[in-house]
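[step 3/7] fold_predict: job queued, chain A
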Amino acid sequence: MKRSHYCGQINESLLDKEVTLCGWVHNRRDHGGVIFIDLRDRTGLVQVVFDPALPGPFGLAANVRSEYVLAVKGKVRPRPAGTENNDLPSGRVEVEALELTILNSSDPLPFAVDDYQQVGEEVRLRYRYLDLRRTEMQKRFMLRAKANRIMREYLDDNGFIEVETPMLTKTTPEGSRDYLVPSRVHPGEFYALPQSPQLFKQLLMISGFDRYYQIVRCFRDEDLRADRQPEFTQLDIEMSFVDEATIQNLMEDMIRKLFKELLQVELSNPLPRMTYEEAMRRFGSDKPDLRNPLELIDIADLLKNVEFKVFAAAANDPKCRVTALRLPKGGDLSRKEIDDYTAFVANFGAKGLAYIKVNDRAAGIAGLQSPILKFILDDVVEAILKRVNAETGDIIFFGADKAKIVSDALGGLRIKLGHDRKLLQGDWKLLWVVDFPTFEWDEEEKRWQFVHHPFTSPKVTDIKQLEADPGNCVSRAYDLVVNGVELGGGSIRIHDQELQTAVFRLLSLTNEQAKEKFGFFLDALKFGCPPHGGLAFGLDRLIMLMTGATSIREVIAFPKTQNAGCPLTGAPSHADEKQLRELGIRARKAQAEG
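[step 4/7] structure written:
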């Protein structure tokens, strides 16, 4: 039988018409001699009725079980009054079976293929082909496919050219470990799987392809989290003869189109911009979730002369910050809850979590509760309360330490309190974070590191000025943040060979090292490189957010676990000795510790 319709297409417009359907048995019910089968394909469900008056199909249907694969020919008719299911597009009709072919049987499943049974992730990934049959999962991947199509159409309409870049390339430092691939024809040498197409897309700008894009697979050998995988997909773009605003405006128009067409959500136009400095000061994070109304308030200027040395020392150290975080109506927090939050901020290096409970704002100092009040003069306390706009019933938390520790600790506490206290407002808050630092000092290695990547252009292009004060150099980088998640980022690139060489020097790369790693690229910059810039969006993260999934593993067809393994295929696995000999390498087992 040749399929004429998908199950999800069956509705009242097809009444009294014959249709041929193919799909899986979602469930089977025997009601007083009449057999009902819910037939499922990727578009939905339809109810098929098998009547004993037709013994051929009825007899076959009696032997059918869950997840059998069927082809059914039948006639569309209305469901009897009172049996309609308004939750299904096909819920007002059913198919009276005239013919049935069992295309394949199925063993009993390790778990039910529905969206209601909770199954451990390891089992789901081991039988991923079954997990992907679930309606929820199929909807996610259909949305992902539609998102790809919309992005391609948008970029094609705006003059971009899709170009594929190599998967086997040269190892370059981009902040994470490379996956290495041994070469058989070049014994002892290795390719690297690309962490991104960064250098190739810049070379395409030098080649004159002034608008490039690619939906591309990337690879990073790094520790995994809920939003990371060893292999992931990004939308990669690059443009010549543009500035930051041009790139941002084009990309946010594309994102607005995606949200409108896929979710029927209208995003603001334009999206707000916020500097890195403001984001860190107000939220302790360079990817702030603007749904959360809580903010960090700096109070160091009020505490320089207090007796409390923890506060005073930090207040007088330019490398430190003293910050307050007011939680409205947080005065009901118990001692145990405060202790739990104290343990939470300790994960970020904080040595404690001072607080003041505002039991009665009108009562002045007498209306406050805190173990630190005896160390701070009353007028200073009052100044703090005014600055944070404290009200009766609030609690104020304090952080005083190195600036990074305070930002990380209270920024993390802000996020946790926002979720714990259900403070988030609105469904979608997007913004651009701009003006990132170009470099950050690595205290362990005693050298400068790049914040984004070493091809990001600083705003200061005078080499002497750059080398004199790299720590205060602002870059032409920008990130797009969605609900506290960095969706992607980019920058205007360095297009001058001398400036690029100077940046490599600042990163402690000798001329020989720079030539070894990037010689081909430095050479290319000498041959008429245009000003250019671009960005990359994490496509897995975007679909995760849009579908409400909790992990990018939920929107990747065949993902790895958090230990970078594949329960389905057993990857990674040992290579046999013949393969290793051909590659000229030998596998050595890791020595057990202890």
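[step 5/7] annotate
The chain has three domains: 7-104, 122-267+539-585, 292-425.
The two ends are 65 Å apart (CA to CA).
exit 0
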